[in-house]
């Protein structure tokens, strides 16, 4: 993949912290993206930049910082898995978001033929072939073709205004 094009800087007076706070008003699901690293080791990180792209063909996307230590592993991997976390997996989200010697230590998972780990207990997972990558500012956008997936009725873990939340239908909240 060629070097990223130089991005134009933010306009003068643009408040990056305030911009980040504004983006934080959009509630997102919380995922752990996994792949097989260069030496065959499992790699993974917490990501909330996951989105569906297309039903036909089945495509999804996510993005990773150009400065992430694991970027090369994801760029070189043939496959990745989007593990959509369930509401009871906050500790797992924090583990894969921070520095940790072995993020997969004591984490129940399976490794399918393509090598990208599928984490147990998630609300859903999407096993994807690494279809394409695009530069976007200070991130790389990964496009994946979904080959297999599974989901459950577990409440999903969400993130909004800098806090974890549990995704449930409004009707269920009104009945409490």
Report a brief summary of the structure.
This protein has helices at 16-23, 71-76, 90-97, 170-174, and strands at residues 28-29, 31-36, 42-47, 51-54, 59-65, 79-84, 109-110, 118-119, 124-136, 139-151, 156-160, 163-167. The relative contact order is 0.21. It has a single domain, classed as Pnp Oxidase, Chain A.
Write a structural description.
The protein is of the alpha+beta class. It has one domain: Electron Transport, Fmn-binding Protein, Chain A (Pnp Oxidase, Chain A, Roll). It contains four helices and twelve strands. It has helices at residues 16-23, 71-76, 90-97, 170-174, and strands spanning 28-29, 31-36, 42-47, 51-54, 59-65, 79-84, 109-110, 118-119, 124-136, 139-151, 156-160, 163-167. The strands form three sheets. A seven-stranded antiparallel beta sheet has the order 3-2-6-9-10-5-4. A three-stranded antiparallel beta sheet has the order 1-11-12, with no helix packed on it. The longest helix is centred in the N-terminal third of the chain and has 8 residues, at 16-23. The protein is globular. The N and C termini lie far apart (52 Å). 26% of the residues are buried.
Order of helices and strands: HEEEEEHEHEEEEEEH
- CATH homologous superfamily classification: Electron Transport, Fmn-binding Protein, Chain A
Query: Briefly, what CATH class?
Result: Mainly Beta
How many helix segments?
4
Mean pLDDT, rounded to whole units? 91
Strand order within the widest beta sheet? 3-2-6-9-10-5-4
- How much helix is in the residues? 10-25%
Which runs of at least 5 residues are low in confidence (pLDDT < 50)? none
Structural class category = alpha+beta
Measured by DSSP, the beta-strand proportion falls in 35-45%
Task: Please give the number of β-strands.
Answer: 12
Morphology call: globular
Q: Tell me what the CATH architecture is.
A: Roll
Compute the CA-based radius of gyration: 17 Å
């Amino acid at each position: 993949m060629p070097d990223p094009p130089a991005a134009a800087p933010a306009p003068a007076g643009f408040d990056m912290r305030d911009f980040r706070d504004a983006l934080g008003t959009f509630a997102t699901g919380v995922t752990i993206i996994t792949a097989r690293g260069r030496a065959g080791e499992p790699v993974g990180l917490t990501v909330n930049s996951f989105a569906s792209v297309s039903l036909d063909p089945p495509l999804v996307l996510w993005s990773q910082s150009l400065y992430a230590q694991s970027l090369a592993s994801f760029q070189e991997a043939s496959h990745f898995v989007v593990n959509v976390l369930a509401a009871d997996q906050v500790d797992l989200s924090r583990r894969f978001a921070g520095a940790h010697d072995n993020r997969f230590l004591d984490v129940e998972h399976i490794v399918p033929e393509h090598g990208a780990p599928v984490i147990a207990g998630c609300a859903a997972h999407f096993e994807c072939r690494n279809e394409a990558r695009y530069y976007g500012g200070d991130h790389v956008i990964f496009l994946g073709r979904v080959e297999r997936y599974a989901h459950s009725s577990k409440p999903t873990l969400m993130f909004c205004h800098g806090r974890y939340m549990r995704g449930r239908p409004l009707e269920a909240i009104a009945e409490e």
